[in-house]
Design goal:
The structure holds two protein chains of two kinds. By secondary structure, chain A is mostly helical. Chain A is 74% helix and 1% strand. Chain A has a two-stranded antiparallel sheet. In chain A, strand 1 and strand 2 form a beta hairpin. By secondary structure, chain B is an alpha+beta fold. In chain B, helix 2 crosses helix 3. Classes of the chains: A mainly alpha, B alpha+beta.
Chain lengths: 281, 347
């Protein structure tokens, strides 16, 4: 076989897969969002943006991501430090930490619903302990911030472990000698973390942040389980326009908005957390 | 002033004993080399002095202060690592400045020290680079500069030249010796390379199996090995050994000839001679030449004496072929004797 064609042949299956299942649907969505009766239009975007729910939806999604992702990074760093320090119990702890990853996001949402709903665990406990006289309606539309907090808790519980897994593997790549050098040259535990672990973990942090932020923009099932449509988010609205309002064009416009903020966030992380030339291991 | 005192330091890893009660004193500003084969405990001892490993037993004193319970940063030491450990995410400048920044020195002082040590190590033109853009030799220079910038009482070096190629190693060795002599620090240097040890050290501690077998000046270690191991480990080619038995008249029988030996000592000794301390003359040890290796200045003759391997470094004018019979006479003042049971030197 010609050695020049071999690389392309090897790349072909993945390329075909990507074209058929990613590029083609993407082009279809883009076409839907920008077209009407075969011509170009911005009408669907106008419909989307002029709807009273659009901006609350947009900001709910962005703020949720802006709160959840940094918290997850901090927690995951702490968890990864713990796991990295362990010896014999390392794997056990790692498995326990990653159990929530095995659940679908809807299941995770329902678990937290079981805690927060009116007949849920939290209310039973509060009533049982005599702290409150009758169950409180936590997740009502009057208490938007409680739904917000519940979603944040559920997301933290559900998806922090994926960040941790990435960071744990990144920490494993940092040679021990750098810590020893830092120790000899005067760095205590905190300084070692700041001056050695964090900068050398930068590529892993970058990967984790990109993955988690994109996923956070796509938050849906947890929000639906805990808040229904009381706390609208972008994917929820996409779903709504597609299936409840039967307007595929506006739904496609929503999808493109999610894509746009995902790309924007990715570019920011790529830029801010880039590694200078020559500064790699 | 930083004299280092090591008192009864022992280290075990589980059931394996890496160090057996080491006692060693290293004088202020002395260049001490810990020399031994891999697994002899030399790196473990260095790491215990550094504080990267804690001893199972014993005490470490630096400059009159007991330090074995202190973290590395409170011991007044700096270290050069085998794999350099130059931080990849920092520039050369920030690498050298690392320890100074940890000490919170004012920027002006940091700058002066970084520039001075960089100049000393000839890397002043690399200060803005990252370690990924440096060669192994340059990284090594950064690692040394980082240690020197601390102006420490003690510099610890863990096989610092072993990752460099042969030519660079030779160059760095000479440079290190000059730089460290001027820096007025006490230096402990770990290596398995005896030539490096001989050329750098004020004193060499030869280690074997977790013991210090001999701690003495390079020439002393070479000329008067305290134990058979030292003679066989140091010198290339190493010492020759032959069994010796005491005669009635206080002389010793060695491979068919009689030699003057120590008046004390057991009946069973080992005769030892360095290959270069042999001359060709009548009445010597009967040797059958096996391999002839002309090395230019000398010719290395590997022969057999009494069925035992025996090497001689002879004048390269000598005409000798494999199979030739030679008579090798040892220089009397260079002959050494070792007790066959304890392996210790007997005088």
């Amino acid at each position: 076989m010609n050695s020049k064609t071999l690389p392309y042949l090897l790349l072909a299956p993945a390329t075909i897969f990507l074209v058929v299942f990613f590029l083609w649907p993407f082009l279809q969505i883009a076409w839907l969002a920008f077209s009407t009766d075969g011509g170009f239009t911005m009408q669907h975007f106008q419909t989307m943006a002029s709807n009273w729910k659009f901006w609350p939806t947009f900001w709910n999604t962005v703020i949720l991501a802006a709160v959840v992702v940094p918290l997850q990074l901090v927690m995951a760093l702490a968890m990864a430090q713990v796991v990295a320090k362990l010896k014999s119990t390392r794997n056990t702890v790692l498995y326990i930490f990653t159990i929530p990853l095995g659940l679908s996001d809807l299941a995770a949402g329902i678990i937290w619903l079981a805690i927060f709903e009116q007949s849920g665990f939290l209310n039973s406990m509060l009533v049982g302990l005599g702290i409150v006289e009758k169950p409180i309606l936590f997740l009502g539309y009057q208490n938007l911030w409680v739904i917000f907090i519940a979603v944040i808790l559920a997301e933290l519980w559900r998806a922090t472990a994926i960040v941790m897994v990435i960071l744990v593997s990144g920490m494993g790549l940092i040679p021990k000698e750098y810590y020893e050098a830092a120790e000899v040259f005067g760095a205590g535990p905190w300084k070692r973390f700041v001056k050695v672990t964090l900068p050398m973990l930068r590529p892993s942090i970058q990967t984790a942040l990109i993955l988690r932020t994109i996923a956070a923009f796509e938050v849906f099932a947890v929000v639906v389980a805990l808040g229904g449509t009381t706390l609208p988010v972008l994917v929820g609205e996409t779903f709504n326009w597609q299936f409840a309002l039967n307007d595929r064009n506006v739904a496609a416009a929503f999808a493109l908005v999610i894509l746009a903020i995902s790309i924007a966030a990715t570019l920011v992380f790529l830029r801010v957390l880039r590694t200078p030339k020559g500064a790699t291991l | 002033m930083a004299e280092i005192l090591i008192k009864g330091v022992a280290k075990s890893f589980g059931s394996f004993t890496a160090l057996h009660s080491i006692d060693l004193t290293i004088a202020d500003q002395e260049f001490m080399v810990l020399l031994g084969a891999s697994g002899c405990g030399k790196t473990t001892l260095l790491r215990i002095i550094a504080g990267l490993e804690s001893p199972t037993q014993g005490e470490v004193w630096i400059g009159g202060k007991r330090v074995d319970q202190l973290p590395p940063r409170e011991r007044g030491i700096a270290m050069v690592f085998q794999n350099y450990a130059v931080f990849p995410h920092l520039t050369v400048y920030e690498n050298i400045a690392f320890g100074l920044r940890m000490k919170k020195l004012p920027q002006a002082e940091v700058d002066t020290r970084v520039k001075r040590t960089a100049e000393l190590m000839h890397i002043e033109q690399l200060l803005k680079r990252y370690s990924g853009q440096l060669s192994g030799g340059q990284r090594q220079r950064v690692a040394v500069a980082r240690a020197l910038a601390m102006e420490p009482d003690v510099i610890l070096m863990d096989e610092p030249l072993s990752n460099l190629d042969a030519l660079l190693r030779l160059e760095m060795r000479a440079e290190l010796k000059g730089v460290l002599a001027n820096s007025k620090t006490t230096t402990i240097y770990v290596t398995h390379d005896q030539v490096e040890a001989m050329s750098l050290a004020d004193r060499i501690s030869v280690m074997n199996g977790g013991h210090i077998v001999q701690a003495a000046s390079p020439v002393e270690v070479y000329r008067n090995p305290a134990a058979r191991f030292v003679g066989s480990f140091i010198g290339n080619p190493p010492m020759n050994f032959l069994p010796a038995t005491r005669n009635g008249d206080g002389r010793y029988h060695v491979a068919g000839i009689a030699l003057d030996g120590p008046s004390q000592g057991g009946a069973k000794l080992e005769f030892a001679i360095r290959p270069e301390d042999l001359t060709i003359a009548a009445g010597g040890l009967k040797a059958t030449a096996r391999v002839i290796e002309p090395l230019g200045a000398h010719t290395l003759v590997t022969s057999e004496v009494d069925g035992k391997l025996f090497r001689a470094v002879l004048d390269s004018d000598l005409k000798v072929a494999p199979g030739d019979e030679l008579s090798l006479v040892p220089k009397p003042d260079r002959v050494r004797w070792f007790d066959l049971e304890t392996s210790k030197a007997v005088n």
